[in-house]
Amino acid sequence: MAKAMQTRSARINSMARARLHDCVVMPSAAWAPSRTLATPGKSGSTPPSSHLDPAPPAAPLVRRTGTPSAALHTGGVMNHRAAPRRLNCAGVGIAALDAAEAVAWVIDRARDLTQTPVSAPGETPSSSPPGVDVHLCNSYTLALADKEGDYRAMLDAATLNLADGTPVMLANRLLHHGAPKERVRGPGLFVQVLRAGRDDGIKHFLLGSTQDTVGRLRDRLERELPGVQIVGTIAPPFRPLTAQELDDITSAIATSGAHIVWVGLGTPKQDWEVARLAATLPVVAIAVGAAFDFVAGTVAEAPRWMQRSGTEWIHRLGSEPKRLWKRYLLGGPRFAAAVVRRRGQG
Asked: At what angle do helices 149-156 and 139-147 cross, to 10 degrees?
């Protein structure tokens, strides 16, 4: 079984590297991983305040009633060791976890890693927990998976796919008895895991967006979540990555000792990257989309009523029409068709 897992990891790593060479990732001022890495407890530089002027102030990272942390450290709520039930949605298996259970699952897996040091790339000891990849899937993700077979195969092999998006949640509710009644939003998962992980000494690495955004994000997290451990950041360049740059990212993460790597590179780039990292290092790699921008406050989130009503996509489309029109106006119908066509799979 161990040999089979190694073969699978090597295959996924090779496939992901090939796809990442063809991907264009989020922009950054420069490629300098050694400069973006920072020691624990040291904040990144603060960019000029004018960069934030167009966006409204970000909401404070305060605890709200009914937060996912209530499900942590409670063995009777769910069996984190057991694989979550997978619900077929447009041909991809989506974990039947709500937001609280998703946070608890991630914390549980990351807690395992706090007991074992992260090894250098290619030198993971057999006693280390295997790397895991977590993908937040919305209707665009599943529409793309319906179109691209290798992308769908990668998601099929993923450790955990979560329902991020009202259409995915509603499709699961219609097709599967007992499916969660809520979606798992990237920004919420990101903040709740960082908050809850402080008690367990969980270390985090931020990969994605721009140096401006990750600097502001790190400053805010360390200011409003005392004790959170951000052990490194990298903002990759806005072009396909070379093999050496991918190796540099892997080495930087391994050296940092991170337990969780948060990846915000946009779909599908971030999904290929978390699959590659999970196949290379014993880390929990999570693709969180635009969470960095939202939590940093550089991009305004939709009003709460739009988030709750499932109309957040209208706000995002209006904010970035040139970038997102294909995602929503073409991806939506394809997702709906895939749900119907693939409903008997899985």
From this structure: 120
If the chain, 346 residues long, is cut into consecutive pieces of 10 residues, what is the mean pLDDT of each piece? 59 70 45 36 35 39 39 37 86 96 97 70 54 96 96 96 93 94 94 97 96 96 98 92 95 97 95 97 96 88 64 64 67 88 76
Give the burial class of 73: count Cβ atoms within 10 A of its Cβ; 0-12 exposed, 13-18 middle, 19 or more buried: middle
Alpha helix stretches (DSSP H) within the chain:
2-22, 33-36, 99-113, 139-147, 149-156, 166-175, 186-196, 211-224, 243-256, 269-280, 291-296, 304-309, 312-319, 321-329, 331-341
Which one, of 122, 110, 158, 58, lies nearest residue 250 by Cα?
Answer: 122
Reference 328, options 175, 87, 165; nearest CA is 165
**CA distance to 161, 197, 217, 298, per residue, from 301 (Å):** 23, 24, 15, 10
**At how many degrees (to 10) do helices 149-156 and 2-22 cross?**
140
Alpha carbons 7 and 209: distance in angstroms, whole number:
32
- State the CB neighbour count (10 A cutoff) for residue 244: 8
Tokens for 31, please give them: 């490629």
